[in-house]
Design brief:
The chain contains 28 helices and 33 strands. The chain has 914 residues and is an alpha+beta fold. Keywords: Cell membrane, Membrane, Transmembrane, Transmembrane helix. Belongs to the UPF0182 family.
Length: 914
């Protein structure tokens, strides 16, 4: 066989080996490229690949050549220091054999570096400046976030490489020992040589080990130099960040260690040439001693100098911590206003704040999700995952609402129905939403549904023209659309079902080789052999919206609570995306993984029907997201490009607000001495919820902020002084229009007691009439559930509102809103509606909403027994509701009302018998 044929044969074998060895990777690459291209993000996908190749290929060739030369040098040194038997393996063959581990090690090195560092290096070279310098080294914060981690990781990689070289050196000599066995000594001496083989290998490799040692100490010196920057994350002082001891002891220690490390490298060179290893090792030994002495000195200074005089020594460092922690969490621009609580509210004031009053929430999201799932799921395979809180203009009024998407949960299909056809071709999507105002309930104490049923029935001017949900939180299976098998759309009355064909743009064609490609990728032969799939069919993958965004941009942290939005008849998901890092200097960590910086940098919008995914930058002042934008310009859009209808529904995220509220418990204080002594620490207020006690949850509400002219959507949480129940401040985040993201702290007077939520809860318990009723309603197996206590500033006064739920003892019973408690000044009233409660305190107020009445399953609230007239009214109401439900085809509600009617008639019969 000629040489050219051998080369051709080897090339073919190599190609086959690569194809077989990387078959899955090749399939995944093609599939993922098609997926990113479908979304219009092919450049986002290729950026990673191109960067990894640009790094990996040069590193592969350089490292392969380096390993090869290194092994050749090892071989030559082995020959110089030993005599060998003539073995059957030629030098040419040995050199060829050396090439194999060189290529292997070069591949491992290049893939490891390119895989770990590609994004960090891109961030290094595309970094945006913060315009903020640290107070110790005067470096821009971008150095710590984008550059220092790359340098440290490169040094760590080099140390790993040095360890690898030591292992390679001894492994190579072990192999050479068997290939070219040494005969340097006479036969008796040879036995001794074999017994001390490790020492002899070390003697042979002394030059290489010296070189490795020199490089190691140089890298160690660089690490000691960079360790000074890590002092900005020190946790040993009075606060997080560099303290007195860090700057006056540890910093000097690092500089000394750096110098000794450099001298140690020089000492190794001296020891090699002078063969004086004892003297050469004195400096590395001194490094150990200096480290021990330095740490002891740091401990002594901290205990003997700093701790007795903390305020005097640590004040500038405490000030640094306060300033940079506030900046890291976006708290440096909180607007602080005094809120003088006069509690002089009148009925006229309530009339002037009707939008606030009408949007006071008397429903809680946890009971609401139960109600949605029991009353609106319609079929067992539908499920409401979560209730979202938003605001809409409904029939001309600005209203706060609950809404939840009705998703199809394939795990709830019956066992026999979980066939491949049903899961991938038939049951493909959820359908519609349920929507109810937060301030209204039915006569049964359930949410008053403004959008309900399947197909959606709307009693408002909000219409849903495209209710199908192909992309959501439960859409975990791939589906194939435009097949011969029609999709299940929604259930009709009886056993009939409506069917449909997908009309959207999502999916990748299964024509040509793609059908075989996705058969291999999904490991399902059914894709290839199914008669239902045609050349017009498309496969839709990665439909779970959180999986989807994490696949597109995994470097962003996503809120785990997406929320649904209705805009122009279509359904959209909005997901908040955060930029988070642990490298902000001097900022105290308040998140997992030592993370100490967060911004809500991105709003991701996903079309629930088409899966179209758009990234909008919501914080242009965040250098981290601007750096990502420099790297992935195709991915991000400005918030101004978001459709206005969607922009009206962006919310200040609770995740960010809750972190900021927790940080602000301590970091509202800017005086270092007061900060250190924690004289003015706040706590998130406590409340009673259900049967337990918890921190007050941050709450969205529509209200008119003190001093403002118009109601708006805000996020709010109250504070109390540390370990005290009275209220001291309220933090609010604005959500609407140009004021989005503005944080306002309302400070309450310190010279008077302002009731905190827990004080109101205790006053409720102490009210004889209320407590007697709570005891009565809790008897007989029924349970009383206390809802969230809302603190609502109106004019110069504070109003407290808490709904009461009752859950009957019967199986699958739902919690029902039966009473609303309102507290104002020293008054506490409990009535069937908020309107009646306000009227009792202030006189005539707004027109009344629907008054909830008590179903027969629960004790009556005003009296243990209903009179006949009340029962007749309730029976008529139940009959009307049942009739309406049958006309709408909502048989679940129909059965509920018929059962209720039956119970009322039984009670009427019992009353008449008495």
């Amino acid at each position: 066989m000629t040489k050219s044929k051998k080369i051709l044969m080897l090339s073919i074998l190599a190609a086959v080996f690569v194809f077989v060895g990387f078959f899955n990777e090749i399939i995944n690459f093609i599939v993922n490229y098609q997926w990113f291209s479908e979304l219009g993000y092919n450049e986002v996908f290729l950026t990673k690949l191109k960067t990894q190749f640009q790094l990996g290929i040069p590193i592969f060739f350089i490292s392969t050549l380096f390993y090869y030369i290194y092994l050749i040098i090892l071989k030559k040194d082995y020959y110089k220091k030993t005599q060998t038997y003539e073995a059957g393996i030629s030098e040419k063959r040995i050199n060829q054999m050396i090439l194999i581990p060189s290529v292997f090690l070069g591949f491992i090195t290049s893939t490891s570096i390119a895989g770990k560092l590609w994004l960090r290096l891109l961030m290094y070279f595309h970094a945006e400046g913060f315009g903020i310098v640290d107070p110790i080294f005067s470096k821009d914060v971008s150095f710590y976030i984008f550059k220092l981690p790359v340098i440290q990781q490169l040094l760590s990689t080099i140390i790993g490489l040095l360890v690898t070289l030591v292992f390679i050196t001894f492994a190579f000599y072990a192999v050479m020992f068997f290939i070219k066995k040494p005969t340097y000594y006479a036969s008796e001496e040879e036995i001794k040589w074999n017994k001390g083989i490790l020492k002899n290998f070390t003697d042979i490799a002394v030059k290489q080990l010296t070189m490795i040692g020199v490089i190691f100490f140089m890298i160690l010196a660089a690490n000691h130099y960079l360790a000074a920057y890590d002092l900005l994350y020190s946790s040993t002082g009075a606060v997080y960040g560099a303290g007195y001891t860090d700057i006056h002891v540890s910093l000097i220690l690092y500089r000394i260690q750096m110098v000794i490390s450099l001298l140690s490298a020089m000492a190794l060179v001296f020891g090699y040439f002078k063969k004086s290893w004892k003297k050469a090792l004195l400096l590395p030994a001194a490094l150990v001693v200096v480290t021990i002495v330095g740490n002891i000195a740091a401990l002594g200074i901290e205990k003997l100098v700093v701790e007795p005089n903390v305020i005097a020594k640590e004040t500038p460092y405490i000030q640094n911590n306060i300033e940079y922690t506030r900046k890291a969490y976006g708290l440096q621009d909180v607007t602080v206003r005094e809120f003088n609580v006069e509690n002089n509210l009148t009925a006229e004031d309530l009339e002037n704040n009707q939008e606030t009053i009408k949007n006071i929430r008397i429903n809680d999201y946890r009971p609401t999700i139960e109600s949605y799932n029991q009353l609106q799921a319609i079929r067992p395979y539908y499920r409401f995952v979560d209730v979202d809180i938003d605001r809409y203009v409904i029939n001309g009024e600005y209203k706060q609402v609950f809404l939840a998407p009705r998703e199809l949960d394939q795990d709830r299909l019956s066992e026999n129905a979980r066939t491949w056809v049903n899961q991938h071709l038939k049951y493909t999507h959820g359908y519609g939403v349920s929507l109810s105002p937060v301030n209204a309930v039915t006569s049964e104490g359930q949410p008053e549904l403004l959008i309900r049923n399947i197909p959606p029935v709307s009693s408002t001017d909000i219409e849903i023209e495209r209710p199908e949900i192909y992309f959501g939180e439960l859409t975990n299976q791939y589906i194939i659309v435009n097949t011969k098998e029609k999709e299940f759309d929604y259930p009709l009355g009886g056993d009939a079902n409506a069917e449909t064909m997908y009309e959207g743009r999502a999916g990748i064609s299964l024509s040509g080789l793609n059908r075989l490609l996705y058969t291999l990728h999904e490991r399902s032969l059914k894709i290839l052999i199914s008669n239902s799939i045609t050349s017009d069919s498309r496969i839709v993958r990665d439909r779970n919206i959180l999986d989807r965004v994490n696949k597109i941009a995994p470097f962003i942290h996503y809120d785990e609570d997406p929320y649904i939005v209705i805009d122009e008849g279509r359904l959209y998901w909005i997901i908040d995306g955060y930029t988070i890092t642990s490298n902000y200097p001097y900022a105290t960590p308040y998140m997992a993984g030592r993370n100490n910086y967060i911004r809500n940098a991105v709003k991701v919008v996903i079309d629930a029907y088409d899966g179209d995914t758009q990234y909008y930058i919501s914080d242009n002042d965040d250098p981290v997201i601007q750096t990502y934008r420099n790297i992935f310009p195709q991915l991000f859009k400005d918030l101004e490009e978001m459709p206005e209808g969607l922009k009206d529904h962006i919310r200040y995220p609770q995740v960010l607000f809750d972190i900021q509220a927790e940080v602000y418990e301590l970091y509202h204080v800017t005086n270092p001495s007061i900060f250190y002594t924690e004289e003015d620490v706040w706590n998130i207020a406590q409340e009673k919820y259900a049967a337990g006690q918890q921190n007050v949850e941050s709450q969205y509400m529509i209200m008119k902020l003190p001093g403002k002219e118009k109601e708006e959507f805000v996020l709010s949480v109250p504070y109390t002084p540390n370990r005290m129940p009275n209220m001291t401040a309220i933090l609010k985040a604005r959500n609407d229009g140009e004021y989005y993201g503005e944080l306002i702290l309302y400070r309450l007077p310190k010279d008077q007691n302002i009731y905190g939520p827990m004080q109101i809860e205790n006053r409720i318990d102490g009210d004889s009439q209320i407590s007697q009723n709570l005891t009565l309603w809790g008897e007989g197996g029924s349970s009383v559930i206390r809802g969230n206590l809302l603190v609502i500033p109106i004019e110069e006064s504070l109003l407290y509102v808490e709904p009461l739920y009752i859950r009957a003892s019967t199986q699958n019973s739902l919690p029902e809103v039966k009473k609303v408690i309102v507290a104002y000044k020293d008054q506490i009233v409990m009535e069937t509606t908020l309107e009646i409660a306000l009227e009792k305190i202030f006189g005539t107020t707004a027109p009344r909403e629907t008054t909830p009445e008590v179903p027969s399953e629960t004790p009556q609230l005003e009296s243990p027994l209903d009179d006949i007239q009340s029962l007749i009214q309730r029976a008529n109401k139940a009959f009307e509701n049942a009739n309406r439900s049958s006309q709408e085809g909502n048989w679940a509600e129909y059965g509920k009302y018929i059962k209720e009617l039956e119970e009322i008639l039984k009670q009427m019969n019992a009353e008449m018998s008495n």
